[in-house]
């Protein structure tokens, strides 16, 4: 594991002589390439066994062992992290959005949500969440959908589907293994008429979500490269992935 360099971020707020409010609280992206922010600690106390940063527009994968907790940090703020989950030993068992939502009878993912597989089994549980809700119905962008929505001038932009295929290939996964995904930190409200929107995010720099693995779980992340709608504030920024061994058994507050 590479050593982690932190950047102190002191918070100061003051008025200038001409009455302008100046604050060091970050607005938008606030990071240095290769250096995670100091506030990116695990949500669940414990020994850190993995701490890696996912570059903007890039992909990441890793196996989170049963009982370990994965904390995902939105380093710059309003950065969507598209996510797929698989049984690490039998990848035909994978995350199922329909099973997850049907079991909890709710359209959103929140603290206490059990992320279930296509066999109805628990893969991971959300044991910490610093924003109001997480999305699992907005899907993943792709070259094809970008071209259809935004025009042929963006057809060269890769999307989350391409990231999933690239990262999944490292684990023997292909097109047939790409299913409905989770979108961490993405704001997809359900309107009164049932329509879905992709609107400005409700996350902020340093916001986190924590997932406890119930079985050994292969996690695929696409640090969303989308630049044509507000899901990433039109400015993709890094994510930070922290895997920890909890100090004690941690129960989610449902």
From TrEMBL:
- Domain DUF1989, chain residue ranges per copy: 53-218
Read off the Pfam families from this record. DUF1989 (PF09347)
Q: Which domain of life is it from?
A: Bacteria
Q: Which PANTHER family match?
A: RE64534P
The protein depicted here goes by the name Urea carboxylase
Q: Which organism is it from?
A: Nocardioides luteus
Species lineage, top-down?
A: Bacteria, Bacillati, Actinomycetota, Actinomycetes, Propionibacteriales
């Amino acid at each position: 594991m590479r050593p982690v360099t932190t950047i102190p971020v002191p918070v100061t707020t003051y008025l200038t002589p001409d009455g302008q409010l100046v604050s060091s609280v970050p607005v938008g992206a606030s990071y240095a390439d290769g250096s995670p922010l100091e506030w990116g600690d695990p949500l669940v106390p414990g020994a850190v066994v993995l701490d890696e940063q996912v570059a903007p527009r890039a992909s990441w994968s890793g196996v989170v062992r049963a009982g370990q907790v994965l904390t995902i940090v939105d380093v710059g703020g309003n950065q969507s992290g598209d996510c797929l989950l698989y049984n690490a030993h039998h990848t035909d068992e994978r995350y199922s959005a329909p099973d997850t939502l049907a079991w909890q009878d709710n359209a959103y993912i929140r603290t206490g949500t059990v992320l279930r597989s296509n066999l109805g089994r628990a893969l991971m549980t959300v044991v910490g969440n610093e924003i109001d809700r997480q999305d699992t119905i907005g899907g993943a962008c792709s070259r094809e959908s970008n071209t259809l929505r935004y025009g042929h001038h963006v057809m060269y932009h890769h999307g989350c589907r391409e990231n999933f295929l690239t990262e999944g290939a490292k684990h023997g996964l292909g097109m047939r293994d790409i299913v409905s995904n989770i979108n961490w930190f993405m704001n997809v409200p359900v309107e009164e008429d049932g329509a879905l929107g992709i609107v400005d995010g409700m996350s902020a720099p340093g916001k986190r979500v924590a997932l406890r693995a119930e079985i050994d779980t292969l996690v695929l992340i696409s640090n969303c490269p989308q630049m044509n709608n507000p899901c990433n504030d039109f400015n993709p920024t890094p994510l930070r992935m922290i895997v920890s061994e909890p100090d004690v058994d941690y129960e989610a507050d449902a």
